[in-house]
């Protein structure tokens, strides 16, 4: 099992994740797309990568937005798996998201 990040480590991680916020309980970002279909396409494209990583976001879609919250349930906090998933989601969202 990973160690949960302490506050300093979360701050350090967020410096490398523009657009993301959070604290020791989780990392959050809202992606805004050009419309509903683009938002859903992002979620569908991410699904197999998420399953490969066996690390799953809590996320909700409302129209053109996808609100994401990442935490590691097994450590009750943030771990390196959340940082890696944030990087993957940013890569998949690419220029389609604001
Ligand atoms: N996702 C998240 N966000 N945190 C976890 O601790 C987690 C997960 N654990 N996805 C995985 C699945 C675990 O339940 C399975 C058994 O590996």
Topology diagram in text:
Elements: H1 7-15, E1 21-23, E2 26-32, H2 36-53, E3 58-62, E4 65-70, H3 80-93
Antiparallel strand pairs: 1-2, 2-4, 3-4
Helix pairs in contact: 2-3
The structure holds ligand H2B.
Ligand H2B binds next to loops.
Question: Overall pLDDT, averaged?
Answer: 96
Please list the strands of the largest sheet in the order they lie side by side: 1-2-4-3
**Percent in strands:** 15-25%
Shape, per Cα inertia axes: globular
DSSP summary: helix tally? 3
Q: At CATH's second level, what is the architecture?
A: 2-Layer Sandwich
Rounded to the nearest angstrom, the radius of gyration is 13 Å
Which structural class do the helices and strands define? Answer: alpha+beta
Bound molecules: ligand H2B
Helix content: 40-55%
Question: Main sheet, how many strands, which sense, barrel?
Answer: 4 strands, antiparallel
Number of domains: 1
Specify the CATH homologous superfamily. Answer: Transcriptional coactivator/pterin dehydratase
What's the helix-strand series? Answer: HEEHEEH
Tally the beta strands.
Answer: 4
User: End-to-end span in angstroms?
Assistant: 34 Å
Which CATH class applies here?
Alpha Beta
Low-pLDDT stretches = none
CATH T-level fold name: Gyrase A, domain 2
């Amino acid at each position: 099992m990973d160690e949960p990040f302490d506050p300093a480590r979360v701050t350090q991680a967020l410096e490398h994740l523009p657009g993301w916020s959070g604290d020791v309980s989780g990392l959050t970002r809202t992606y805004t797309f050009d419309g509903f279909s683009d938002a859903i396409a992002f979620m569908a494209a991410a699904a197999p990568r998420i399953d490969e990583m066996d690390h799953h976001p809590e996320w909700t879609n409302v129209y053109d937005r996808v609100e994401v919250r990442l935490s590691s349930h097994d450590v009750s906090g943030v771990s390196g798996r959340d940082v890696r998933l944030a990087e993957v989601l940013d890569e998949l969202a690419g220029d389609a998201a604001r």
